[in-house]
Every structure is written in C-alpha cells, then in structure tokens.
Amino acid sequence: MSIGQVPDPVFAQKMVGDGIAIDPTDQILTAPCDGEIILLHAAHHAVTLKTPQGLEILMHIGLDTVELRGKGFTVHVKVGDRVKTGDRLIEFDADYIALQATSLLTMIVIINADRVANTAYRSGPVVVGQDIILEVTLKADVATVVESGKLITSEPIVVPNPIGLHARPAAVLVNLAKPYQSVIRLHRGDNSANAKSVVALMNLDVKHNDRVTLTAVGEDAKAAIVALTQAIVDGLGEARSMPVAPATVTAQTLPPQPPSDPDRILGVVASPGLVVGQTYRVRESALNVIELAQNPETEKQALDRAIAQALVDVTAIRGRVKSRSGASKADIFAAHEALLDDPELLDLAHGAIAQGKSAAYAWQQAFTAQADQLARLPNPTLAQRATDLRDIGQRVLRLLVGVDTEAATYPPNTILLAANLTPSDMANLDRAHVKGFCTMAGGATSHVAILARSMGIPAIVGAESRILELADGIPVVLDGNLGEVRLNVSPAAIELVQTQIAQQQAKQANDLQSASQPAITLDQHRIQVVANISNLQDAEKSVALGGEGVGLLRSEFIFMDRSAAPSEDEQTEIYRSILVVLGNDRPMVIRTLDVGGDKPLAYVSLPHEANPFLGERGIRIGLDRPDLLRTQLRAILRSASAGQLRVMFPMIGRLEEIRQIKAMLAEERQQLGIGPIEIGIMVEIPAAAVLAEQFAQEVDFFSIGTNDLTQYTLAIDRGHPKLAPLADGLNPAVLRLIAQTVKGATQYGKWVGICGGIASDPQAVPILIGLGIRELSVSIPTIPTIKAQIRTLTLSDCQTLAVKALTMATAAEVRTLCPI
User: Fold this and answer.
1) What secondary structure letter does DSSP report for 435?
2) For residue 408, is pLDDT > 80?
C-alpha cells in the first residue's frame, strides 16, 4: 500500500524518505532486492540495505516497535553481509508484536531519495521474489557518480559547536558540501542524513561533543571528506566558545508560573530594557491554498519561480541586517537561503506535485511537516529552528498565492503582542514605531531574541497565552529587565516610568562623561575597575570607556578557530600590542590557555568525556601538553617589558599544580634572562577557595571566576537550558567561598579580584566590596556604570551588607539587600 496510508506522520509525510508499506501475512522480513547490510538497529526491528547502485533502503517492522527492545525479533544477518532478493533478514513473532505495538505494517523506505529521479509504485497482494513493489529510476548524474567511486569514510569527528549542528552550522556544512558531485552523508550512531540538506542535518539532532563520521561516494569523495571533516572540526564558522545562552540574559528561563497579580503578565527576558507603549496584536491572515492542480509541470515551474524570488528577498534582508547589526546576525538569514535550496524540502514538494497537488499545497505540506518534526526534538535550540523553517516556508507560500509580502506598518509607540515572530518580521520591523514586543512562543536563544538584542529592542518571549486576549491600544509597561508586561497602569504610574526611563538615559550619559575618573567610595577607598577582554579591539574600547586595566585577557581566543596553535612570535606580538594600548599605567592580567569543556581546540585531541567540565580543561591541558603551555609562557615573558603584565592560571585545584607551573615558568624566565612577573590563580574550583590560605603563600594574587565557582559549588551546569537561571553567584554558599578566599589572601598580604559575571552586576557590587574585593573586572559596556555606582557607596555600608548577605539562605534574599 502507499506509504501515505501509514498511521504515523513520520512515515506518511515521507520525513524518513520515500517508499512503500507492506501489511505482512507471514512472519519473515526478506530482502526486497540484492544488496549489503549496512545498519542493523539495536532493537532488531529495523535494518538498512545498500544496493549495488548505492540506494540505501530502510526496512522497519511495525510502528513503535523500538520500545520492545528486541523482544519478539530474531535476526538472521549482520552488518556487512551480502544478501539476495528473498533472503531472510529478520523473523518476528507477529502475535506478540501485534499485542504490544501500534501496527505490524512494515515500511520499505529509500532514505537517500535525493538520488531518485522517478518512482513507480505498485499496490495489492504481492509475493516475495515474484512481484515488483517499487520501480526506481536513478538520477543519471548521481548513478554515474556512485558507480565510478568507492566509499570514503572519515575518522570519527567530535562536534565542537556548543549547541550542536543547529541551523547556521548546518547551513554552512550544506553550502560546503553542495559543490561536490559525490553523494555525502553525515552519520551519528545508527542514523545518517544527507549532508546537502539543512533539514535532514537538523533532524539528525547532533549535539555538542557528539561523535560523527562522514561518508562520500564519487570521483571527488576523498577531497570532500578532507574538506568537510576540517570544516566540522573548525566549528563550521561558529565561535566554539559561544555560550548556550547569552550572558546578558540573567532573568529566569524556566516556564513562568501563573501570576498572583492579574495586572502582570510574566515571560522570559529576551532583550533587556524598559519601555511604555500601546498594545497591538499581530494577526496572521489565513492564506487561500487550493489542494489540487491540473498540470504538474506548470506547478513545478511556479514553485521554482517563487523560491527564486524568495531567495532574492532573503539576500536583500541579509544585506540590511549585516549593515545594521553585523555579519554574525546576518548569518541567521544565510541559513534561510540554504533552506530554500534544501533537497529534502524540494523532494517532498515535488513528489506531492507529481501526484496532482498544487504548488502551494505541496510546499505548505512539505515545510509544515518538517517544521513540526523539528519542533518535537528534545534539543530546545533545534526545536526553536522550526520558526526559521516556517518563516521561509510562509515567504514562499505568500508568493505562490499572490499575497503582498511587504513589511507591516504599526501605530506609533507600539508594543507588539504575538503568538510568535519570525526573523523576517524582525528584519522588517519599523523601529520608529515599535518600542518592544512580547510573544507567547520562543526562547532566550532564539534567532528572534538574538536580533532583538542586536537592535536594542526590549523583548519578552515565552509569555502567558493571555497576551493574545488583550485588545489593541491598551497602555502597558514592558519591562525587559524583569520579564513582565504590566497592565492597567494608571497615567500617573506611566508618567513615573517615563521619568525613570529619561533618568536612566541621562544617568548613562553622565556616567560616560565621568568614566575616566577613578572609582573611589565616599569614604575614600579606591576600587580598581578593569575589563574582561579577548583582543586588541576590546582593549581599545575599554580604555575609551574608562577601564583602568585588564583583569582578564581570555588568551584562548587567540588559539581558537584555526588549524594550528599560534606561534611564540605571533602570541608575543599580540600581547605586546595590547599592552601598548593600555600604556604603562594600566595593568593587564593574561589568563593562560583555558580550553576543554565547552571550548575545544581542533588541533588538541581530547577524549570524549561524559562530563567534560570535570575532565581535561584549563591548566590540566597545559600540564598534559607542556609544549603549548611553555610556548605561551615564553611569549608572555617576552612581551612583559611593554607594560604592567601579570599572569594567572585557570582551573587550579591542587597545590601541586601551581608549584609545577611556577617551576616551569622559572625555567623559561631564566633561559630568556627576564625578571619575575606577578603570578596569580583563578579561584573557580571550591577547593582553591577552601585552601586559599595555603595558595596565598604560593602566588601574588587571586582572581575569582564566579561563573565556574558557582556551577561547581551548586552542581548546576551554567549552560543548562532549564537550570542555568538557578546558578546565581549571589547564592550565600558562593559568597562564603569568596569571603574565605579573601580571608586567606589577606592573611599573607595578597589582593583578590573578581572577573566573573557578578562583577558587572550592580546588585552584587556593594556586597563584593564589603567582602574585601579590591578589583572588579567587568564587561566593557558596564565600566562607566560600575565606576559611577562605586562613587555613591561607602566601604562601611558595604561591609554591613556583606555581613547580612552571609547569614541569608538564598540568592533571592541576598538580592533584596541591594535593589536596582
């Protein structure tokens, strides 16, 4: 029977591939053609056969039979066996399976349908080895490629991308793969995907640190494998140190609870900011899509024209976004361009057109089915990419039905309310009229949220559904800092908020004007406010905003996104150039190479680890690869004469480590004939805080990395999509470790700084100063604000707050001490 009759959308909508279904009358699955067994599922309910012509045919016995975990199945073949038509593959207990599973229907599916030019189906009763069920005509060029080449397989590749192969890296891989004539597939475990299909790659759900392999067949197979392997290792154009969730998003990302206050609608912070405006709900008009058509060729041409026009439109949007928000934000639309040329989508649509469906109906069914499948994936980032697919799908669909695709216009001072917004909506948003938006769908890592932050538009996502019940024109306050929309706000309250906004803007301007002044408390205690930087450009920005030095140079960025480590000379020049920008009066602390965990290097082979944050990372890699560490130490020493240079080492947890490093540094210093430099450690592991008194006898200073210290203290992965908001550095347990570090350091006259996220948090600053912190290394944009805040404080008041904070039970209680 037709596979469309299968009561499972994954097969019926041809998400796995095209094929046919068998309703078995016996209990033996036999080979439908000659071939080689290339995959055998661990649950023994499915097997994949590869034909001499290169077709990959999946045979899947029953529906939901994977849950039987092999019970009721007897396998007669193994991977690598060559079989003939009619050979026994798997026997099954039909009675048992019929009682336990949804259906006994067996699907026979061609999973590399991109190689098929035409398919002729049969129906009715069939007999093994006698009746033809499916006739397949291969695309001529593909058939030639497969017959003329050998299968080339890559070595296992560890995927470095922090959130796996989501839309953008998948699009990069597709664009790199398409110029090759070979048939290329990416394999993850028992599953594989066409490497020239963004949708197929995303549905493969490849995660960070997954091991994958590439296979290719054709004349240029070897070249394809070499190039694509390196591209995956290099991160497919994505900075492998990027966080899963942007650091600027500090509010809750857990699903909001029902509010006790009916005048507040809660959501998740997508883009910070405070605005006042009037509601305007986005209403999507239904498109008139006709199902059937008379001429398949005419419909196919109409689809091709619509896709071509959509590509022109998206390319223009990409250019506008690049000029306004930069190349990284514009790359969101590079993924849209790739989706328009996705073979999986086109195959689904063309197949439906061939069966008499209209272009609009076929396209709508194709992109909706694939988007729904993405939305069901457990990876929240990949699930959010369903919005991108629906965005580009709707763009083509509007062109097909002749609906105007121009940007919508909104009244002045609009607060948009919508079930969801798309990247295209954001790119065309009228910034003169739209002050902010709130959507029911979406997350803090969605492309819409990323674009909102780049445009400076306050935004809330994941809000309660009642936002769609609000009438247009209602005055509201959208607070992107707290993640809420306030309703029924009195005119007096609105005026107060508008005054608050004006005051904030004026304060920012005043803070900037006084940014060059030192940060001295009212009772004359100076706090050094320095910057966390990654490169020379960051150093220049920090100086312009009043930065008094660099408390953290993340040297790993010099090592990343390249195929080999930077040389000693190259590193020396980089460090020296930054010191020159800072001048003799501003110190710089270089953190030695801090990779591993969420920051792999292409040229440093690390074993797969179940928990990489507790494995080989930070100084552990430096001690394991002393060639890397010694080269960096020499470069640091050689550049020291250009300014005030200090060095610190990450992930120190044992005294043996710092002693070994000090000996190594002394050896290199003596060989170069260079004087001593100040040495410090990062306090990230609770053991370092507990042993601060002992470490203070070994080093000159401490810098507390509160992001890692918090995650290790609370046992919460700071990149976890649900738990990360609970990893608050103002948790009293973390504060007590900070206090213990300061106490141990002070006993031996050593100073302590903070280079983690809470150094930039206005609610944390008074408490940190009260605990004895004397240097705050902050994000560059916050330098003027933090310095201005310090000038309003007294050390005695800060010490009183710190004592209270250490007695409290939760981070939320601590935050009540210092309301913003």
Assistant:
1) E
2) no
